[in-house]
Amino acid sequence: MEERNHLSGFVWGMLGVLCFSLTLPATNVAVQYFNSTFVGLGRTIPASLLAVLFLIINKQPVPTKKQFRDLFIIAFGAVLIFPLLTTYAMADLPVSHGAVELALLPLATAFFAMIIANERPAFKFWVASSIASLSVIIYAFTLGLGTIHLADMALIISVIILGLSYAMGAKLAKEIGSWQTIAWSVIIGAPLFLIPVIRSIHAEEILAVPITGWVSFIYLAVISQFLAYVFWYKGLSVGGISKVSQLQYLQPFLMITFSFLFLNEVFNLYTVIIAVVTVSCVIIGKNAA
Description:
15 helices; 82% helix; 0% strand
């Protein structure tokens, strides 16, 4: 029975990782046809309708006032800042480039989790974090021809803020449930984004978007912003957090692979090497934390 749970957990977890790994490629395609506000914030509107449906079907209670304060922090990072900044970055950067910088996310999450739990990070954590961060900075500096572009800064900032949201989400998930946390976060964000999204809509632009653009946007709204979290958290709850969470280390390499397969990006050995170095340091640092 235990082995069946582990297998089921890994299947659900892998589905979540696959869904998250296609987020940057889908964003890269969507920003070619839609403006960044529509792609970054507009995805929240359909996701919120799906979240409401899930909460009603499962008869979930309304969070407390204190829980809503935590949900606003989660929504700020996972629903507002991360989608907006990655959308901005993907208008200028290759997906494989973004995949390397997003590899720091587990480390950022572990850092904020320690702050929330009032724990002192181990020395090994700081060493591994420094090497991983330095690797990413050198990578961005090298490909930026001697400078770090604003798109790189946007991705790094998005990783830091999303790390805080993930850590807060992990804490709150123990109280209201895992997928419920992202569902309520999306619902909180949707009304705040409605006016900016409406203002960003231009009839000529919308009517001219091909099916590829709409498929990418729908993927971001339905899968990336909500269902991917449901799959991921389902896997963590069934298979165990410590074991299933290791799957997230595959994500940068899957992003690089998808960018090569679907976007015809050039396979860059330098990118893969930096990704291996970064992910190795992240694994060491996260385990040390």
